[in-house]
Write a structure and sequence with these properties.
Helix content: 25-40%
Largest sheet: 3 strands, antiparallel
Order of helices and strands: HEEHEHHHEEH
Structural class: alpha+beta
Shape: globular
Strand order of the largest sheet: 3-4-5
Number of strands: 5
Radius of gyration: 16 Å
Length: about 190
Amino acid sequence: MRFDRVPMPPAVEARPRDTRGYPVPAITPWTGGEPQFARTDHGRSADCARQRRCSVCDREMAPGPVWRVVGPAECAAIEAALAAGRPYRNLAPTPEAPGHRVCMLYASMVCPYLARPGARRGLTADTPDELTGHVVRGAARGAVGAVAGFGDYEYAVTGAQVLFRFLGLAEFLPYGLADEQLAELRAEIARTGR
């Protein structure tokens, strides 16, 4: 589905746009007046973590669950835990920041990398390490993604990264093609008005 046909939450609609009309997430850095979508701005990400603001719309997140989009490996781990009747726990930190449910549903549908299984990353990580080494030019998203809700998050701000850890799985919405999330996105926009 074309990004301009995906219903846009009002909070996202208020964000700055690139020349194509894509809204620019709160944690996206700008260089020479152009957003760098495949990168994360350290300072903006740290501010969002500390102030409990959404990484997409930059508005406050109420106490309670937060959401993020997860890839195939984490989807498989969540599915295995759920199938075994165990709580899902992932203590590995990630640079992927949280947001509102409506914002993450929207991001899963309009971000080319998140939306389609065959989508590939266009840029390398600035300084790949054990957490970001998989983020390489040409890496495919994989067969499945999910919007996952968690009871809360922890974070650490280092000199080079902002790292998150998510606690207490609250919701799991797996998808192959993000278009599968369309009804859920529409319902969430209607419910929250965000």
